[in-house]
Design goal:
heterodimer, A: about 170 residues, mainly alpha, 9 helices, elongated, B: about 100 residues, 5 helices, about 80% helix
């Protein structure tokens, strides 16, 4: 096994250590097939379901047969992730608990300021944990109300259909 | 050779434990430049548990990078100005007390 060093940094703005969906989508159009393949692997690894359409486009149109095969493999994984409801947005929300809203914060401060609250006992810690979980649940429910999921399922189903077919012709 | 590059080389070690340690170290370093090599492990490593481990590390780095980017771009010019004003006022009060 021999792994090359990553090339994400080459495509990020100079001096900025960052990567996001836009940078990855740009890399799918790179002139170098190795960069396009590597990007497809990254998208599959991080289960970036927002890239599903772009991956399907690569699968259908890329001039390189190897890249098309990788796109098909990545597209299947992304489709499976989409089917089970995965999204980067939701994963980020779970990984980094959103800061409490002002009204939640006020309530929390009032409760923590209570003379019987020390923050050290197991009961107090359990209370804090429960409050945090409740706040996260509220955030999630708010987000779901604001942005209904699966609004684009019809077109994504079509994409999945094409990804599950055999790869197009093998000209390189 | 950077520390990332050293650990990226170790991703090709025949010993699965050495590869696992390399993935762990790369996740701790957190450089998005290693997403490519981690994705290669995710796609091709003969050990299924290492493929999953590499995926978890890759996601962790990706999410952290997105979060950093969003934090950088979240504050508008007005918000930054407001924050600077508040800091200046706090500084002035502090000096007044002295």
């Amino acid at each position: 096994m021999n792994y090359n060093t990553g090339r994400i940094a080459d495509h990020a703005p100079e001096g900025v250590l960052s990567v996001d969906l836009q940078i990855l989508l740009q890399r799918l159009q790179d002139a170098d097939p190795a960069v396009r393949s590597e990007t497809l692997l990254i998208l599959a690894m991080v289960e970036e379901t927002q890239a599903l359409q772009a991956v399907a486009h690569v699968f259908k149109t890329d001039p390189n047969a190897h890249v098309r095969r990788v796109a098909q493999w990545a597209g299947r994984l992304l489709w499976q992730a989409h089917q089970r409801g995965h999204s980067t947005e939701q994963a980020l929300r779970q990984q980094y608990a959103a800061p409490p809203k002002p009204e939640h914060e006020e309530m929390l401060i009032a409760e923590v300021s209570s003379p019987i609250f020390t923050g050290k006992s197991k009961l107090d810690q359990k209370f804090l944990l429960e409050r945090e979980l409740q706040a996260q649940q509220r955030e999630l429910l708010d987000a779901l109300r604001e942005k209904p999921t699966d609004t684009n399922d019809v077109s994504l189903s079509d994409l999945a259909g094409s990804l599950l077919q055999d790869a197009p012709g093998s000209e390189t | 050779m950077t520390s990332s590059e050293i650990w990226i080389r170790r991703l090709g070690d025949p010993d699965p434990q050495a590869r696992r340690e390399a993935i762990r170290q790369l996740e701790m370093i957190g450089d998005p430049a290693v997403l490519g090599p981690l994705a290669a492990v995710f796609a091709t490593d003969p050990d299924p548990s290492l493929r999953i481990f590499a995926q978890q590390a890759g996601k962790s780095i990706y999410y952290a990078a997105i979060r950093r980017a969003s934090e950088t771009h979240q504050a508008s010019a007005d918000e930054r100005q407001k924050a600077a004003d508040i800091l200046a006022q706090a500084q002035a009060r502090k000096q007044k007390r002295r």
